Amino acid sequence: MAATKARKGTQAVACLNSAAAALLGISAPAVAGPPLNLQTDIEYVRYEEEGGKRMTVDGPRISIRAPHGEEAAFTLNLSHESVSGASPAVVTFSSGNKPNITLSGASIQETQNHVDGTYTLYDGDRSWSMGLGHAKENDYRSRFGSLSVARSIDQGNTELTAGIGFSSDDIQSTNDPSLNEKRNTSELSIGASRTISPTRLLQTTLLNRHGRGYFNDPYKNTFCIGCGSVFLPDLRPGERNEWLLTSRLRNHFPESRTTLKAEYRFYHDDWGVNAHTLDLGWIVESGTPWNIEAGVRYHTQSEADFFVGSYTEASRVNQGETVSSDYRLSSYGTLSSLMRLSRKMSDASTLDFNMEHIRQDPSLHFGSTGSLFESMDAWLLSVNLKQEF
Amino acid sequence: MSSKHYYRGVLILILSIGITGCGPGAKPWERGYLAKPAMSLQQSSTHAGARQKVYSSRESVRGSASVGGGGCGCN
Question: Which pTM does this prediction carry?
Fold first, then answer.
C-alpha cells in the first residue's frame, strides 16, 4: 500500500514537472537521432472534385532523408502538381433567390512546384533544425524558412520542442497582370510529446501564426442585383492572427495487434473563424504482409466576420469594406472517410494504396446548418512507396 | 474571440498539457511497440503533406506544419 502510494506520488510529481516544463516553453518531443540509412518516400497523388467537373490535381511528391555522418541528417522534399478545372469565381445575390454561383469555366491550368530542405544536428538529448524552401505557381511565389530545437528529458519519455518560421509571398493574378502584392508571415510554436506508457504516446502543440499583407483572392467577386448592382471584389483584412492547438494520441493494443491514431485540432483567428477538427485512424496488423487502416475525419468551422452569404448581407456592404463570398470562409462541416492498404514488400520497403472521400456540406456544420452555398464531393487517391537503402 | 470560445480554448490547452505531462513512461527495454511505424507522431510523410495541402486549400484552416509554401489559396 505504502509502495503504491509512493509510486503514485512520484508519478504525480513527474506529471507536474512535465506539465510545468511544457507551460514554460522549455521545449519539445523526443530526439530520435539521424537515420542509419538513406530513406525515400515517393507518392503519386490524384485529387478530383465532383468527379473531375471542378478542380483536378495530379502529380508526384518525393521525400528523401539521408544521414550526414553520425550526428546530422538532411531531408529534401519535392513536389510537382498539375492543376486544372474550374472554381467559383462570382457569387451573385438577388432578392429572394438563392445565391447564384458562376464557375470560372475550365479555364484554370497551372503547375505548382515545391521544394524544401531541412538540416538537423543531433547532440545527445538535443537537436537543432534549420529549414529553407521555395514554392512556385503561375501567379504565386513563396520563400520560407524555419528554425527549431528539440530536447529529450526524463529518460527519453518527454520531448520538448520550440520553433519559429517565416515566409515571404508574392501574389499575382493571371486576370490582372498589374497585380503584384506581398504577404509576410511569421510563426511560433511550442510542443511536448510524452510517452504515457509502453503502448501510448501523446503530443500537444501550440502554434501562433501572424500574417500581414495581401490576403484577397483576386479571382473572386460578389455581385448584388437590386442593391445598385454593386460589383464587389474580394477584399479581406490586411492582417491575420491565428492560433492552433493540436493534440495527437497513438495507442497500440498488443492483444488485437491494432493501433489507434487520434488527432484533435482547435483553431481560432481574428477574422472570426473558429474550427474544430477530429481525425481518427484504426490500423489493423493482419499477420500477413498486408495491413489495413480505416479512418474518419470531421471538421467544422464558423464563418468569417466579413463573409457574405445572403442578399440581405450583400446589400449592407459598401464599396471599400471588407467582403468575401469565398466558400472557404463560410460555415460548414467536412466529413471524410479513408482507407489505406499497406503491403510490406520486404524488410526495407512498403507499398501503400490510399483512398479518401471528402464531403463538404452546410448541414455538416456542428450545431446548426452552415452558410456554405452548395455541397461538394472530392476524392484523394494515391500510391506510395517507402524504401530504405 | 468570444468569451465562450476563449474559455473553451484555455480549458483544452490546460487539459492537453496536463495529460501530456502524465504517465509513468516506458523503460528502454519496453519501447518495442513505440518503435512501430503506426506509432509515429511525425507528420512529415509525403502522404501527410498531400492531405494537408488538400485540406488547407479547401478549408479556412492551414495546419501546423512549417510556415510557407501552402500556395496562393486562390481557386
Answer: 0.87
